[in-house]
Structures are given as C-alpha cells and as structure tokens.
Amino acid sequence: MGISIWQLLIILLIIVLLFGTKKLRSIGKDMGGAVKGFRDAMDDRDDKQEKTPQELEHSEASRVIEGEVTKEETTAAASKDKEKDQA
Fold first, then answer.
1. How far is it, in rounded angstroms, from Cα 11 to Cα 5?
2. What confidence tens digit (pLDDT) does each residue in 10-67 have?
3. What pLDDT does 67 receive?
4. In whole angstroms, what is the distance from residue 38 CA to residue 33 CA?
5. Rounded Cα–Cα distance for residues 24 and 51 (Å)
6. Are 56 and 48 in contact (CB under 8 A)?
7. Domain range annotation of the chain
8. Distances from the Cα of 73 to the Cαs of 67, 68, 79, 80, 81, in angstroms?
9. Residue 80: is it exposed, middle or buried by C-beta count within 10 angstroms (0-12/13-18/19+)?
10. Per residue, what are the HEC states of 48-87?
C-alpha cells in the first residue's frame, strides 16, 4: 500500500541527478540554519513570556542609550520650537 524502500531510492536518485550533490548540500545547510534560527527565536519568545511585568520593566529601564548633544543641534531644535510656538 505504501511506498517501498526501492521506490524511495529511485526518487532520491532522480533528485540527485536533477539538482546535483552540491546544490542539495547547500539547500540542506540553508534549511538547517533556518530551523535553528526559528528555534532560537521561539526560545527567546518563551523566555520573555516567562518573565513577570516587573522584571520586563526593570530590564527595559536598565538599558543605557549613549549620545552626545552639540551646540548646533540644540540651537536648531530651539529655533524649531520657537517657530511652532509662533504658528
């Protein structure tokens, strides 16, 4: 009723003849990388869901964003604010 081992071997031989071993190897590598990336993303999602809202809030608050303000940026921002106030 099902597919026998000989039928599977013939199908595999036809696939190898059509695509070649190098192409099949690269397809397998790409598929493995995609599955690994998907699993890692799912694990990260599960880790975030397990945390309580306070833990998430604390982890978000502990991030530091570094930057530098120059005089040109502050004067440009101040002039835009003045234009908005006048309008």
1. 10
2. 999 999 999 898 998 999 999 999 999 999 988 887 776 666 666 656 655 566 677 7
3. 72
4. 9
5. 41
6. yes
7. 21-47
8. 12, 10, 10, 11, 12
9. exposed
10. HHHCCHHHHHHHHHCCCCCCCCCHHHHHHHHHHHHHHHHC
- Residues 40, 32 contacting (CB under 8 angstroms): no
Q: Which token pair is 20?
A: 């070649």
Whether the predicted pLDDT of 1 surpasses 70: no
Q: Which residues of 28-55 are buried (b: 16+ CB within 10 A; e: fewer)?
A: eeeeeeeeeeeeeeeeeeeeeeeeeeee
pLDDT at position 59: 59
Tell me 14's DSSP state.
H
